Structure to design on (299 residues):
């Protein structure tokens, strides 16, 4: 059974929305929302210059992390056990998410899926291991409180009051920051489009896969942000300049940035800069536990 509806968000709203759904034997199997924002996203896609900036930034981050990790290991610094735990956590969550999200057929293609998943997740897990070794001594020296709750979580203390308080702090902080970004985007560009995670309604396995990706991406996003800040601080020697520059660069990765004209770009970029500055403050104050909320909000 298939059905589709076309209409608007509300009376007097000009945006056209099309909702499609399908069911098989009384169970929902497909759900999709399409509308004017699809055409809008084509005209507001990031220019190639921005994409080139992030490609160069990725190479610089990997190179900087490798040098810092090598120096820390040579000097006998770094928490190898903690790095191994966080890398294993990312590997397992991404592998499980990939297995759940893929379409499986009894054929030799399953071997190809396994090889690709193992290679991709192993690569990102290795980067996480490298980044943790690179910044952990610096964080332990300058932001020691940020590592306490994360280490307690890795130790299996899921009901620890400090772990719960840091999770709640991250939730409310990112809820407020994401609300600000949504209001700014709605004011200058148009109504916020539905989140990408609406595809989770397609199936239970797809929902579980997206949930695992959100959880596994928490340390990836948090460590990448902290690595960028640490490298900028070492290069610029000015804390406030490094924080502002990091927030500005990370702001270019916003999913709702509007490149259609300079005014909309400036306003939405400023909102994302504030969003990422809040992200930096929460990371330094409460640690990696808050970064999962940043990923979900941004999606």
């Amino acid at each position: 059974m298939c059905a589709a509806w076309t209409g608007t968000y509300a009376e007097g709203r000009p945006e056209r929305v099309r909702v499609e759904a399908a069911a098989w034997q009384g169970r929902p199997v497909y759900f999709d929302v399409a509308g004017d924002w699809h055409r809008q996203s084509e005209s507001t896609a990031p220019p190639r210059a921005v994409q080139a900036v992030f490609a160069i930034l990725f190479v610089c981050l990997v190179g900087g992390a490798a040098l810092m990790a090598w120096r820390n290991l040579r000097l006998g610094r770094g928490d190898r056990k903690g790095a191994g735990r966080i890398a294993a956590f990312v590997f397992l969550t991404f592998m499980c998410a990939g297995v759940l999200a893929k379409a499986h057929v009894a054929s030799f293609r399953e071997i190809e899926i396994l090889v690709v998943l193992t290679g991709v997740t192993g690569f990102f897990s290795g980067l996480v291991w490298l980044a943790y070794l690179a910044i952990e001594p610096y964080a332990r020296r300058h932001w020691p409180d940020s590592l306490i709750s994360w280490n307690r979580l890795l130790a299996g203390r899921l009901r620890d009051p400090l772990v719960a308080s840091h999770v709640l702090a991250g939730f409310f902080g990112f809820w407020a920051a994401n609300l600000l970004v949504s209001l700014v985007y709605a004011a200058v560009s148009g109504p916020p489009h539905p989140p990408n995670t609406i595809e989770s309604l397609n199936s239970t396995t797809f929902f579980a896969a997206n949930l695992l990706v959100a959880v596994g991406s928490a340390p990836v996003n948090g460590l990448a942000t902290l690595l960028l800040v640490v490298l900028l601080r070492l290069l610029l020697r000015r804390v406030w300049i490094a924080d502002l520059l990091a927030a500005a660069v990370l702001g270019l990765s916003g999913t709702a940035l509007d490149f259609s004209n300079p005014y909309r770009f400036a306003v939405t970029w400023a909102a994302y800069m504030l969003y990422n500055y809040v992200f930096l403050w929460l990371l330094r104050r409460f640690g990696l536990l808050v970064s999962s909320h940043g990923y979900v909000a941004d999606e």
User: Anything to note?
Assistant: Residues 44-298 form one domain. The radius of gyration is 21 Å. The chain has ten helices and three strands. Confidence is low (pLDDT under 50) at residues 294-299.
